[in-house]
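debug: dumping io for the single-chain case to check the tokenizer round-trip. Nothing else runs in this session.
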Amino acid sequence: MLEILEQGGWLMIPIVACSIVSLAIIGERFWSLNSKKILPKELVSSVWKLHKAKQLDKSKVQSLSNSSPLGRVLAAGILNESHGREIMKESIEEVGRQIAHELERYLNSLGTIASITPLLGLLGTVIGMINVFSAIMASGVGDPAVLAGGISQALITTASGMSVAIPSLMFYRYFRGKVDELVIQMETEALKLVEMMHGDRE
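debug: decoded output
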């Protein structure tokens, strides 16, 4: 493996760095975008029971807001209950947008890695081809070893760049879809609570 990295030339350094950052982001996002942490089961029903029992005081709403992203969305609606249904919905949507932005953390970096690593590989290809043609100009085509060095550099950097870009792009798309799904589910659950509070739903 070390020999391959050395043969790829100095461009392997940023490609390897991108692969490390990409793996770190993918691991962190898998940990952070856990549905159970973001959308705890039975949270809406437990909040509704507290509301019916008139036990939703400020301290409970604050602890609800701190418990999870869904809790923050529910708390935003509850705090605006006295202002009517439309204001409750607007506050829920506003907090939902803020949470969506937080859930998308590092995804732009992952998308950037997916975009630039093939270009780094292509740059390595160009540099490798330049080395090949420089060797041909200097000593002709009589020494295959000189030509093979430039060609191997070109192929290694291209393959390395694509190897980092393909999984990065796949996980970028996956996490973007996951965030959209979680945000929709959060807003749906919060709107259920709004409807129950206003007597439109049991």
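debug: round-trip ok. Residues 144-197 form the longest helix (54 residues).
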